Structure prediction request, 905 residues.
Amino acid sequence: MKSAILQTASRYLLPILLLFSFFLLLRGHYYPGGGFVGGLVASIAFVLHSFAHGTENTMKILRYKPLSLIPIGLGISALSVVAPMIAGLPPMTGLWFEEPIPVIGMIGSALFFDIGVYLVVIGVVLTILFTISLND
Amino acid sequence: MLFTVLTGLITSSLLIPFGKFIKTKWSIVLPFIPVFLFIFYLLQVSSVASGINFVQHISWVPSLGVNFDFRLDGLSLLFALLITGIGSGIFFYGRTYLKGHPYFDRFFGYLLLFMSAMLGVVLANNIITLFIFWELTSISSFFLIGFNNDNKDSRKSAITALSITGIGGFFLLAGLLLLGNIAETFIISELIDRRDIIINHSLYPLFVGLIFLGAFTKSAQFPFHFWLPGAMKAPTPVSAYLHSATMVKAGIYLLARFTPILGNTDFWNYTLMIVGGITMIYAAVHSLFRIDLKGILAYSTISALGILTFLLGLGTKDAIIAASVFILVHALYKATLFMVTGIIDHETHTRDITQLAGLRKVLFPVFIAALLAALSSAGLPLTFGFIGKDLIYEATLHYANNWALWLTILAVATNTALVAAGFMAGVKPFVGKLPTQFEKIHLPYSSMWLPPLILGVLGIVFGCMPGMIGDIFNHRAADSIFGAETEMHLKIWHGFNTVLILSLCTLAAGTLLYLFNKPSAAKLNAVERLNNISPQHIILKLASLVERFSTAYTNNVHDGFLRSYHFKIIVFAELLLAYKLWLSGPIQIDFEKLTPITWYEIAFVLILIGAVYLIVTTKSRLTSVVSTSVIGYCICLIFVFYSAPDLAMTQFTIDTLTTVLFVLVLYKLPGFINFAKKGVQIRDAIVALGFGVIISLIMLKVLYEPTTTEISDFYGENSYLLAKGKNVVNVILVDFRGIDTMFETVVLSIAALGVYSLIKLRLKSSEKE
Prediction:
């Protein structure tokens, strides 16, 4: 799709949407949001960019294949599941820092779990969409 | 004891990465694994003989009562010694037998897997653990029978064996679960204390019947015996190990293990006596007509298993003692004869006894081993077989019933045939004139003929000092089966009595039978003609019927059209739900509980209807996709109205992405060409409307039901206290039900990989062959 308006807009929308998706991810534990929605919004950001500039160019921005996000995400989730076992607790026990960190808020193992979900969702959606759209 | 089970399993899995390594001269480490385990169990002999039973408990799934409970009593120890002792011989033998075979590593991987599984079966003190190892033995047996996987017969035999033992295992599981639930424990040593509850329960015949099916299929009892001759397609070390000495005795072990729990009832005793009796005479007679060495041995093994079942069925003290001794007797001579057969096959490349003769001149030590085994099998005085046979006759003669005479005649007849079969396999190939084509044969490595020779000699040594051997190996085993002290003392000489006369008569009659029975291909063919009424034929016929049914089912139901799958699934769901609705009585609608309808709700319901109308009538794919997403957005709005922001957000983004996905895919498809016929359209409309109506009715009914808020209250109260989150939906996703989410992401990843590999990794047309 060659549209000057869309191309210009998407250039600015991509970082804004990504920021928004990250915002959704972080606030998920207290307000509507979370890793799943965050991941979907981030994917939409890239999909919008690919509509305006072509999938090849979006892939260039991404640098790495979206497929590689999947193992990273699964790994982070799995680590946050297993991590409490090192401290002798049952898996998936929520571990939290005592004090909140400025801007981000409370940090705990649940957040890392959500980050994993976020990355997996981006990886899955972009892998499916980009492989189909690049397939001739 | 767990480590003895794990040693084999771990080594077996190590052979996957280090398979190449083990094909070199390092293969010598393999036989020392069973040797090491054998020594371990030998060291336990003295304490077990003095009545101490080792118990080990390792939690596995304690909430389900499934644990690694192990217990080493007399019976377990006898089997553990057989498994590791004969295993040691087989490993040395097999190492030479399969030298240079491309799948050498694989073979020993399976063999180690089997050995561990079998040890697990005999050591398990928990019926579920026992069952798991039981199935593992079936699986390893499947791989070993089908070891020559380029041979069609091997594959077929492997599948037959797996199906028969697998079906048996299935019944066994059902029986064990019933038993465990009735007795409220899965631990074998505790089951014995609840014997009264168990045998007086109304379901007793059912679960005992199921357990019988498991044991009979595994131990090749009539009418399930036919998988065992087929299993002889496996390399000979496997036949010697699995299909004569150990695995097929798992069924016998199971019956023996459950005798003190379930035994001594009419149902138990008569079933075992009848099945065992038929099996032993049927197979013994069959063995006389075989001309393949392995065929003879297979049928005589089935017959021996029949004898064991029969003895357990008699259930008297004498019979139990006889069974516990005969297990050892049979394992010793049968493993020897199989290994001898393997050597003959290896050197002469034939197993046809009409062609084999005079081999004693070239394979002298092998001949000695075979002769000793044949004599033990025949029950010559001073062999261990003599003791075994004596005990069997003692058991049948003293059976307190009018049947004693008939049972003795049955036992004598079976044993006579077995004597002849033993001579056919152990003596016939070695006597007479050596055919010229076999003159060049030379003796194989000592690692091949030494194990059978040792086992053969043991048969004589044990026979000369039965008292000591009986005390060491069999006394406590018989106690475990009998459930009480048996005061067993074996003697070489019982005095000049009926048993001795019977024993000598059997020997004489068997020898005569051997001399006059000339097996030939013609006779075999005559017997084969009766195959049409054999259980094998009938069961295989049934199996092919099942196969035909499943083919027809697949062809008719799975036509590969997405629309037809949808249609079937929805119609099925409709019928089920409608039936349930109809059962639950009239539907009342509580208008009080319904919230008033607002103007904007009416507005987007109208939008919904419009979108649906467009989807149904449009002739463009793109329009229908867009209309579908309109419906999706409308549903998002509903979520927003009823305060579910998380759902609304997710639905909104998902809908957007789905639409994009649809457009990407549809872009590549041609336009609509074929439209469904009018009739089909009407049918689909009815199904769709029906589904909508049923779901609406269910929703209205749900509203009328009193709601329980227990679960949502729990999450509401605890999400901040326990998980430090204020957004309950998110807390449930990442914390309370985090494992679900974890696996959902895994499923998503698999889907992505599926799409990726389907599209990217398509075969080029040149690779499609």
Remarks:
- Residues 109-134 of chain A form the longest helix (26 residues).
- Chain A touches chain B through 45 residues (CB under 8 Å).
- The CA atoms of residues 66 and 123 of chain A lie 5 Å apart.
